[in-house]
Amino acid sequence: MTDTGSPRQRERATGGTSSLEEQCIAKGMRMTEQRRIIAGVIEGASDHPDVEELYRRAVEQDPRISISTVYRTVKLFEDAGIIERHDFRDGRARYETVPDEHHDHLIDLKSGRVIEFRNEEIERLQEAIARKLGFRLVDHRLELYGVPLSPPDRE
Description:
By secondary structure, the protein is α+β, with helices and mostly antiparallel strands.
């Protein structure tokens, strides 16, 4: 199992015009300074923040940004298909940029931490199951929920 959180975080921190911002422009969105800031906050996040957390981070850069602006911008980005919404059973809609490469999530139920991973064996098994049942898999989401093992239980 490979944790892909670190490479994505490095990719998001490369600076310059964000690829999220470029995607918005390519989709014909008018990029106000506030939208640019919110796009940068989303792109810089490695922790799948909710709207309230995005707002807290955005107002650090521009105190004039309102929570309603963040909600509207997140909805605009989600409707355009450039960010994904997740419900990790904690009562909050959480967001991430649409990844270049598919990955799955393991959610720590004690801390709320979200770990991104990719496992080729799991991917092959899902394809095989769909094929066996007479389907061509076009999309899927895998979310694992767990609690940390105590040291003697670990492999």
